[in-house]
Design goal:
It contains no helices and eleven strands. With about 130 residues, the chain is mainly beta.
């Protein structure tokens, strides 16, 4: 069983930046594809960004391309999401997720992930 714990959320003005972190309890994070999802009130949880097990492949939902950067430090068992030029529509609870995989691809659907964190709230004011 892998436990994931997000941190770094908060309230920020439009145009500002936040860096989310996700600490994993496993010492073998390199065996997992990782991702970030967002859930706004009353809406479904959607894919935001994903990264393959070794960090060489990343993918993003179109609205965040050029503004968000996903990265990982397998030695520290930590996943990151750098969010710049934030917009009010980026508001929601951000969840990190992990799925067992050592393949050269990114997981983009919820069903592909095995483990989820509890989420961290990001609020962007206009």
């Amino acid at each position: 069983q892998v436990q994931l714990a997000e941190s770094g959320g908060g309230l920020v003005q439009a145009g500002g930046s936040l860096r989310l972190s996700c600490a994993a309890s496993t010492r073998t994070l390199s065996s997992y594809a990782m991702g970030w999802f967002r859930q706004a009130p009353g809406k479904e949880r959607i894919f935001v960004a994903g990264i393959n097990y070794n960090g060489r492949i990343t993918d993003y939902t179109d609205p965040v391309k050029g503004r968000f950067t996903i990265s990982r430090d397998n030695a520290r068992n930590t996943l990151y999401l750098q969010m710049n030029s934030l917009k009010p529509e980026d508001t929601g609870v951000y969840y990190c997720a992990g799925g067992i995989s050592r393949r050269l691809r990114v997981f983009k659907t919820k069903d592909e992930y095995d483990y989820w964190g509890q989420g961290t709230q990001v609020t962007v004011s206009s």
